[in-house]
Specification:
The protein has 849 residues and is an alpha/beta fold. The protein contains 32 helices and 33 strands. The chain is elongated and about 105 Å long. Bound molecules: phosphoenolpyruvate and magnesium ion.
Length: 849
Amino acid sequence: MTRSARVVRYVYDFDETAAGGRELLGGKGIGLAEMTQLGVPVPAGFTITTDACRAYLREGGLPAGLEDEVARHIERLEATTGKRFGDSADPLLVSVRSGAAVSMPGMMDTILNVGLNDLAVAGLARTTGNDAFAQDCYRRLIQMYGETVDRVEFERAETDVEPLKETYRRQTGSDFPQDAREQLRRAIIAVFESWQTPRAQVYRRTYDIPDDIGTAVNVVQMVFGNKGDRSATGVCFTRDPSTGEPGLYGEYLVNAQGEDVVSGVRTPQPIEEMRERLPEAFEQLLETMARLEHHYRDMQDIEFTVEEGKLYLLQTRSAKRTAAAALKAAVDMTAEELISREEAIARIDPSQLDQLLHPRLDPKAEFEVAARGLNASPGAASGAVVLDADTAAERGKAGEPVILVRWETTPDDIHGLIQSKGVLTAHGGMTSHAAVVARGMGKPCVAGCEGLEIDVDARTLRIGGHDLREGDRITIDGGTGRVIVGAVALVAPQINEDFETVLAWADNVRRLKVRANADNASDSAKAREFGAEGIGLCRTEHMFFGDERLPVMQEMILASDERGRRDALERLLPFQQSDFEAIFEAMAGLPVTIRLLDPPLHEFLPPLAEAADERMRSRIRGLTEANPMLGTRGCRLGIQWPEVYEMQVRAIARAAKAVQERTGDAPLVEIMHPLVGFREELRRLRELTDEVMAQEAPELEYLCGTMIELPRAALRADEIAEVADFFSFGTNDLTQTTLGMSRDDAEGKFLTFYLEDGVVDRNPFEVLDRDGVGDLMHIGVERGRSTKPDLKLGICGEHGGEPTSVEFCHELGLDYVSCSPYRVPLARLAAAQAVLKEGSRAVYVAAGG
Ligand code: PEP
Ligand code: MG
């Protein structure tokens, strides 16, 4: 090591190579450098690195040496172009453009025509013989520079140079700067500063872009699309970004600059028209597009300018695309041998697949968003507002599209949810009842919508300032959390061959199995259709609701002794049995994990004020708990009232036998006990399970296991494994018990503040908290397998359908993930991507953008 300070280099010409790649040069900079090196026609210029931006943000000023370096690169640019910067006769003009490593379209600033002043504008008019053009260039500089560098607010309509300069003078107290080098210096600073604007910060938070990576700045020789009829500017794609169809898609404008296309001031023309008007440039564009797509091996989004017939490319990046386009392009490029199947799998964003499984708002529809809530379950729905579950059930059953709108839903609302097109709640988060149930059913849900007020008695509601009555139409978009007053056109789901093809490839790659959380036959069938390889969680509590069942369940809870309870349970058994039979048949040949009763019993009783009589009131009081999620629930119920679990196991055994007799095949039964913390709990419950199974179906093979949803269970997994055939990580509860955060009291409340304020990066109820909860899972896996090396391991919390959490489950070596039926395709893809990431760092990651 030498003792001399490292010499930091901040500026690279486009034809120089830099070791730092995209992180150092930004997306635009690396694209320009690579295009230059490929021999694609690109204007000359240089990139000021993200290192310089970070130094600027750290030190609050331009880092030492940067200005000298910029001056040297300007000299080289002068030599390349044969023009001088600041010259008044034939000036070199440059654009100063932002370009971060991660694309942030439109979030940061760009200034064109830097280098013009009162004298140079006359020179430009003379050398081009076009005074209007020169004036137009100067006008753009004054506007963009004034707005970006000095925050001047111009009248939109003003297009003449003199009044613009006057406005600049009035608002800043000085004349428009005439020194080209000063313009350049302040433009560079303004681009660095634009990294910190509120809109850029919001964008970064939305798309999980780190705050500290900074932007590069590209200083590029100006080329002019506004020099007359043989000049133009445009944007094009190598394939259709909405459908993925190969071909040429794009728009252009004759005699214009890029901002005119983007800002919508003038209406662009379809790019095919260019074939007639500018044939040579058009042919060259086609050839260049093919080359770029081949080089980057991905669909490109290209910006270009034609200056007096000569083509220049200003930018290329991998194109943002819909899920349908992503799948089609991936399948086609594989057929074209441009990419491998593994690359095709790696290219698709699993979360985007949701777009294809649900109806969506018509992208062409125009509407006003009245309020926003959490995007709790994807898809869009339009319907009449209904304020209670009974009415929703009634009107929905009669064929009317209805949206159930509630403060929040409870299991008691299930019949209304089933008959609704979607659900909107004022309260509750991503794991609220409405959210979980809606996701399971594949219905749209917007939860925790703060702009919603409901007056159930008056049958009215207010949404973001609009007064509505029950029966009025609204539209919800559960993929984005938007709520719209009135009906909006929808487009149907689009599962197609490309979808099936890519998922079949993913199935060949993944190691994790994918199961579904489903508790009725139709959800099970749906899950199977989406490729589920079994049920990982059948929650049985939902089977105790409904007109015929709930009163019997309540009788059981109200009974004063075991005899009374057994009497009610005997009447519940046939209901359970028939539900299990239907699920076993729907999942024939695949394993079904049935979880015994979990929630606290008060959930089956009405609120105290609605109790039928004194006996019920006193029972409700007796069951009241300060913290029901940590009270008498899960296996604690089964230990205290073994007859409840006994009935459930009996129903499972009888259903399995009946199905076997009917179909000839025995269902693959897995019985799961919830909320176990002590070995002794599971030992007792296993004994009970084995006894009943031996009585009812002695021949039937089955597994008996537990959820791991308490920290103690994970820590004592070695002991618990002695009496378990499998573990399923219940990460909903494991998250709340590890973090000490009640899910119902965190989301939409302090957790929202934590997320906004950066205390935590992600909602741990959505994205698994690897460091905390994940560590406990790691311990659970290791200790469990130390006792039983072949212990079957899965996850059935909501995280089982979240792509990064699926990746973590793969790394942990789980056997399967289980998630809502509609997330099964996403999990299949994410599980395959986890293998690819692990296996090869060489797998292509989208480039060019
Ligand atoms: C869990 O806790 O992760 C789980 C799946 O169970 P539930 O959400 O029903 O409590
Ligand atoms: Mg749980």
